Amino acid sequence: MTLTLRPAIADDLNALDALEQRCFQSDRLSRRSFRHWIRAQHSGLIVAEEDGQLLGYALVLLQQGTRLARLYSIAVDPDGRGRQLGRALMQAAEDYAHSQRRLYLRLEVRRDNERAIRLYQQLGYQHFDEMPDYYEDHEDALRFQKRLHYLPQNAEQLQVPWVQQSTPFTCGPACLQMAMAALGDYRPTVTEELLLWREATTIFMTAGHGGCHPLGLALAARQRGLNAEVWCNQRGPLFVDSVRDSAKKAVIETLHDHFVAQAKAQQLPVHYREFGADQIDQAIAAGRIVLVMISTWRLDGRKAPHWVAVSGSDDECFYIHDPDPGEEQVPLDCQYVPISRRLFGQMHRYGQAKLKTAVVLGG
Fold this sequence. Notes:
seven-stranded mixed β-sheet, 363 residues, Cathepsin B, Chain A, Aminopeptidase, single chain, alpha+beta, 2 domains
């Protein structure tokens, strides 16, 4: 009998559901979830079949706009164990991620699953993080990753704690809290997040509450004892082209003028030119944290300004901490996210005016 590895189809639904019940006592994928992943784009559900019997599966998710893939779940039928099926499914998962030009494949595994951990280590996966109380029964998860494109690794990763924004409009304050936690003895709170937003916001934006001005973020950081400097390729009021109402434009312009005056009074360094890849590398090498405004178009299809924290770099990628998991992601997918340098350059601009701005922070 020959083992076949192939993409899952709708006719596999009953067998997948039954396999899940046999393999796991908790943290099971539902029948509805399997139906979704069979149909979904940006994912690969691979099944192992022998003589018409489904013996295992591997589910790989692709994170849009990045070079990252995640092994979301893998299962081998108890009757099929001891026959290298897990190894075969892992190879199929890597082949799928590689075919989609993903740079890393990441996974989570129970701390007490020694057999699976040995397999991942044998296949070249490196332990890089852990998540306490991750599973339904409160067991911890260990995080592993493997680089699928074997290039020299010279990443300089910064130890940047990840902070999730608590509102749709506080990405900037959440990123600033990441920097404060990385650069000093600081514990982020929701109250501080909202207070930071009050200090740094433009009040209005494309819709709803406004986002944070780079000068506003830098001034708030300076107020809390950090060294800060701003890079911006525009001198005039920012974001005014994102609103139509003249009264709202006037408010944005008033706040911009206030931030400029405060920056001048406090001798805050402001560089009116682009902050490119070389400058990001230099800042990271110096142990500084870089907050960058990006357009979310290549992440979620929406043209919205969004602050992220750069958490590392190497010859091929920049790594970001994204404070917004969105609707389909989990926090694990938003930390040390590898984005190719070319794509990052395309994301690091916003609006018709192609605004490029960054806030560089040090202790």
